[in-house]
Amino acid sequence: MPLGEFELIRRYFAAASCAQGAAGVALGIGDDCALLELAGDEQLAVSTDTLVVGVHFPEQADPFLLGQRALGVSASDLAAMGAAPLGFTLAITLPAADADWLEAFARGLDCMAARCGLRLIGGDTTRGPLSLTLTVFGRLPRGQALTRAGAQVGDLLCVGGALGEAAAALPLVLGQVAADGVHAEALLARYWSPMPQLDLGQALRGRATAALDISDGLLADCGHIAQASAVGLRIELEHLPLSVALREQAGAKALTCALAGGDDYLLAFTLPPAELAPLQQAGWPIQVVGQAVAGSGVQVIDCNGAPFVLSHGGYQHFGPSRD
Amino acid sequence: MPLGEFELIRRYFAAASCAQGAAGVALGIGDDCALLELAGDEQLAVSTDTLVVGVHFPEQADPFLLGQRALGVSASDLAAMGAAPLGFTLAITLPAADADWLEAFARGLDCMAARCGLRLIGGDTTRGPLSLTLTVFGRLPRGQALTRAGAQVGDLLCVGGALGEAAAALPLVLGQVAADGVHAEALLARYWSPMPQLDLGQALRGRATAALDISDGLLADCGHIAQASAVGLRIELEHLPLSVALREQAGAKALTCALAGGDDYLLAFTLPPAELAPLQQAGWPIQVVGQAVAGSGVQVIDCNGAPFVLSHGGYQHFGPSRD
Lengths: 323, 323
Prior knowledge:
Chains A, B: InterPro entries: PurM-like_C_dom, PurM-like_C_sf, PurM-like_N, PurM-like_N_sf, ThiL-like. Chains A, B: This is Thiamine-monophosphate kinase. Chains A, B: Catalyzes the ATP-dependent phosphorylation of thiamine-monophosphate (TMP) to form thiamine-pyrophosphate (TPP), the active form of vitamin B1. Two copies of one chain form a homodimer. The first copy, chain A, has about 325 residues and is α+β, with helices and mostly antiparallel strands. Helices cover about 35% and strands about 25% of the residues of chain A. In chain A, strands 1-2-3-6-4-5 form a six-stranded mixed beta sheet. In chain A, strands 8-10-7-11-9-12 form a six-stranded mixed beta sheet.
């Protein structure tokens, strides 16, 4: 089935959902989290993600790593809004009760929960084909959420670390390439244990003008910021942070991984120039990769200022499509 | 697979989850909702439920009715805590994008959302075997949630309406009996459009000493209150509210439906005797069916005060087991 049909479903439910501004709802479907109004000048950030076996992860996935990754990916949506982590629910559907599998899965989940400061507060266990739905909760002072809208012409386009590593790990995850050596190990860790940038997200409150987490690739996700903010974004090729591990493993595909590779779960955000130095001096791992310009869409330019076009289609996540 | 294995999984995750009293968590796994502490003397009630095709509903289920029922069942957990409805997320996994099915499902969902005062605030759409995970949110003044613990000896045991109608509808739902006549129609409506008693739940705040919603049958659910509250509960057979539709449709099985039939999604709660009259005078549909006594467990007595034992095993929900 083409990806487009599921995109249509999403739009269908988005249209059916309440409009932003409805009583009690500060932000509905369409950003990294929804925001609910609470008493006491507080908002609740909520995000739900489902992972289905054979679509989002292979059946033979290591259950410990799967537990880590499932929660890491969901928690990243809280980071993208600048929310302080609160808790999560887990709805798990299993074909059978395999004690070893569950024990390892729960350890992976616990491990990521401790790293993120999130607590398992509830859930449901049902029988059926393996799938996981995690709903994460965070809190925010009212009006301080980082959304995709708000980037201004002249802002710096920044990311929270080296790009493309999770994409470079995909051939290793799928067993298409043998995972030998220290670089392979580093990349696999990035894929299976994404580290949501929750602290960075909170540090960016009141400073960044727009933000999201990179799940579909820098180009695609910057497209969301550009559209929501009604600006253009220019990415400078020479400033893309590429790790040694990425260059060694991906070789000629390193740039494709960095620009179009998903699953990094680093933050991408826009920052007024004056905000950069204090954040970097405070030790935040911020890399400037471009800027917001008048216009629309996302453009990549090389060191001569000439447009750069990927020779190669977009990134494929695990499985036949991203749905 | 025996039901017990999934019960073990639930216990496993409950043990892995934070203890009640952990910072920010007022109530963890084990009641109808988890409670998160918020600023401003407010708590957030959260509940997650998954429905899997072939386990919780038949593949040929009418999508409009399925949408209604899925949200109604989840919202009932908010009613059971006395929470004011806020919003919900929907994670839907679908094998294919069928526009007619989706349109009808979303209409059913919208219809129940409007009846409950809940807003769709976010979600996820993924490809795979049909399943639905709904997470519902409500708000509560701090410390006013109705939990399963708190019933006192001498309290009245009450329910929010006529019992057993959804169970009596099950043979109609499964096509085992032809659905003819006005009674069949009424029962099917109770099954497919459970009406969560959200207003009653809020009216019981500060009055009821324990509460839950009847999902597994009066006997089984009263067992949860008895255990959590460390009291016994005595149910008086002659006071069970049985509708004409139930008597007509279920015949000799009417009592079994009322005592052991699940899926009613009415509230069951304990009330100090002095609280009853003002609530009934205010028009709340409260039926007294027994009382809390010293001891443990749930006992049913007939009009002579003799113990009554169901001749018949527990209630079966749709499908091979309740998981």
